[in-house]
Structures are given as structure tokens and as C-alpha cells.
Amino acid sequence: MNAGAELAEIAFCIGDPSRASMLWSLMGRKKARPASELAMLANVSPQTASNHLKTLVNARLLKVSPMGRNKFCRLSDASVAAALESLMVVARPEIKAGGIAERTAPWPKGAHPKEAAVEEKRVATTDLWFKSLGRT
């Protein structure tokens, strides 16, 4: 495959807004996210998210680690994060490339609109788990 075709394949994968949102939500994170969380952040059904994730894994942009009933996703390596950050600098010139650790979100200052809901749900689940163990 020539360079143009390879670039077009990666651009196709990143070009879908749902897949781009999933990839961007993994930026700057050391921990993987469950596929269900990525589906919620991308505002798609779990089935649609599964298809998107399969596309991203096949393009070597994501790695998936199954843990029990869940699949945890992370960017495949730092080069993917660097490419996404570079594309965001082109897409939004007001964002300066400051390194992955200092990334600026593509949405207004603060977290993704659904990030707070995801975190709230995680805290509630953790609290319930501790209560079931008698550790309140």
C-alpha cells in the first residue's frame, strides 16, 4: 500500500465524529476507559461503539484489554496521541501544541459535557460497592 492510501485509511478512521470523540477522550490518560464509557462520551449506542472500536483497533489506533465482562480501551501508543494533538492544532489554531500532558480540550474550558456524569456514576458505583462490603 502506498503512503497516500495509508494516510487516507487513518484519516477515514479519525474522520468520523464519534470515533474522533472516543480517541480524544483517551488523550492524556494513563488509565484505559471501558468501552461503555466511550460509548456514552461519544453519544452512541454500545453496539455502534463496538463497531467503531473494532475499526480503530484494526487501524492500530487503539488497544483493547478484556477484563471480566468489560473491554478497556487505550491509545495504542504515544505516536497516536501526538498525531491527534497535531490535528487539533490544525483544526483549532488558537490551541497551541504544548505536549500531550498539557492538552487543551476541543470543547470549552473544563471537561467534556458528559465527563461529570461519567465520574458521578463511577463514584456512586464505588460507594455502593464499599457499602456492600460494610466499609462506609
Key terms:
single chain, 136 residues, mainly alpha, Arc Repressor Mutant, subunit A, three-stranded antiparallel sheet, 6 helices, 3 strands
Topology:
Elements lengths: L2 H13 L1 H9 L7 E2 H8 L3 H13 L3 E6 L2 E6 L2 H14 L23 H18 L4
Helix pairs in contact: 2-3, 3-4
Question: How would you describe the overall organization of this protein?
Answer:
The protein has helices at 3-15, 17-25, 35-42, 46-58, 78-91, 115-132, and strands spanning 33-34, 62-67, 70-75. Helix 2 packs across helix 3 and helix 3 packs across helix 4 (46-58). It contains 6 helices and 3 strands, in the order ααβααββαα. The chain has a single domain (3-105), classed as Orthogonal Bundle (Arc Repressor Mutant, subunit A). By secondary structure, the chain is mainly alpha-helical. It is globular and about 60 Å long.
